[in-house]
Amino acid sequence: MNKDIKQVSAKGSSPRNIEELEKLALLGEQIAGIAHEINNPLSAILGYSEMLQSMELEPKARKYAHNIYISSMRASKIAEGLLTFLKKKDINLVPTNINDVIQKTLSIFEYQLSVNEISVNLNLSSTSFINGDFHKLQQIFFNLFMNAIQSLEKWGGNRIISISSESLENKVVVIFSDSGHGINIEDSSRIFLPLHTTKKNGTGLGLSIVNSLIKEHDGDISLISNSIGCSFKITFPTISARDKNNSYISESKTKTTTTKRVLIIDDDEIVINAIVGIIKLLGCTVTFITKPLDALEEVQRSNYDIILVDYKMPVMNGVDFIKQASKFVSIEKFILITGYVGLDIKEEFEKYKIPVLHKPIGLDELRHVIIEGIS
After folding, report:
1. What would you measure as the largest C-alpha separation in the chain, in angstroms?
2. 291: confidence class by pLDDT, cuts 50, 70, 90
3. pLDDT per residue over 345-357, tens digit each?
């Protein structure tokens, strides 16, 4: 990395010209058309890989299952990142320990780091709490890990990723560094722009997505000077000590199983079997139905604690189903699931504040809504 690069902030980054804006518009149209078809099979792949990892497997089979999980998570994060250019998803800010997010994201890459002989140095403070959306924060660090690993895969020198966090009076500062080839001075002012890439087969979206998500948290990211490698400085507003007790992640207090009865309504049996399997890992009793009209009869004769309803189904979509079923069941029991990017819930439906889970859905996300409660 060139020493002349001192600090380049992402503030004010924007597409360079009309041609890039047109590319982004076309990209949004393409994503809207194919996202549902991508997210459904991704849900199945992610679910089955998580079930496999919960079983007693031979080391080689466990490695294969983990690789499937890593690949599906990678595809999921890429798709989710692309969607930030099409339609912003609501952000749910709660007191969150940024160190927990970093460590949980790091665990996803354990195998890739091992096979590429990449060491990770962590120097995390014990009090780095911010108001954050866990899943969006994880996406930030997922992209940064991906960039760093790709930079180091063919690097001939030491392969090290270093991450530090520090809680100051009014902000939390995270420094994310790698020991790779760094960024040329010509590219340093453009790295946060959509579609700008220094990689042969890159999309040019990773760092612009990171920048967008950090801005949603009222934070900032900048490229800082190193003698070698590449470093990013990320800052977030801190929160008061009083709020830290309510952090999103509290491993000692979070239950891992439950005995709730769950009903799932989805017409894609491959996807539904995967979701059923990972919900059973939580200890739930699960029933699934593929036809909305049959499900309407079921909710009238049986009692369920939670009802997951897919949005896109034949005969009746998920929103219409919930409207009909809420005549017999409390509206608070429903969760809408969807892989459809362009979902636009009508105003009269929004007033009920029905939670929406976007496919692909993983074990942690299901555990959060099923065990910790719908919110």
Report:
1. 71
2. very high
3. 555 556 667 788 8
Confidence of residue 2 (pLDDT cuts 50, 70, 90): very low
Cα(68)–Cα(77) distance, integer angstroms = 14
Asked whether 373 and 52 are in contact (CB, 8 A), the reply is no
CA distance 152 to 145: 11
Burial of 12 (0-12, 13-18, 19+ CB in 10 A): exposed
Mean pLDDT of 52-80: 81
What is the rounded CA–CA span in Å between residue 199 and residue 355?
A: 38
Sheet of 7-9: strand order equals 7-9, 220-224, 230-237, 171-178, 160-167, 119-124
Pairing of strands 230-237, 306-310: unpaired
pTM of the model: 0.58
What the block records as the tokens of 310 is 């897919």
Compute, in degrees rounded to 10, the torsion defined by CA atoms 108, 114, 116, 121: 80
**How far is C-alpha 344 from the geometric centre of its chain's CA atoms?**
21
Instruction: Give the per-residue pLDDT at 251.
Output: 39
The Cα-based distances of 99 to 126, 154, 176, 248 in angstroms read 8, 28, 12, 12
CA 9 to each of CA 1, 5, 188, 232: distance values in angstroms, whole numbers, following the listed order: 16, 11, 10, 10
Average pLDDT, the chain: 78
Cβ atoms within 10 A of the Cβ of 151, count?
21
Single-letter amino acid, residue 19: E
Question: Are 296 and 324 contacting, i.e. CB atoms less than 8 angstroms apart?
Answer: yes
What are the structural domains, with CATH classification, of the chain?
A: 7-246 (3.30.565.10), 261-371 (3.40.50.2300)
Amino acid code (one letter) for 86: L
Nearest to 97 by CA among 323, 248, 206: 248
Residue indicated by tokens 């597409």: 15
Tokens of 301: 């004769």
| Residue 129 tokens, joined | 């709490």
Residue pointed to by tokens 């890593």: 70
DSSP track, 238-269: B--GGGGGG-S--TTT-------EEEEE-S-H
Q: What is the DSSP letter of 244?
A: G
Taking CA 152 as the corner, what is the angle to CA 6 and CA 134, rounded to the nearest 5 degrees? 75
Q: Residue 263 CA to chain centroid, in angstroms? A: 25
Paired with 309 in beta bridges are 265, 336
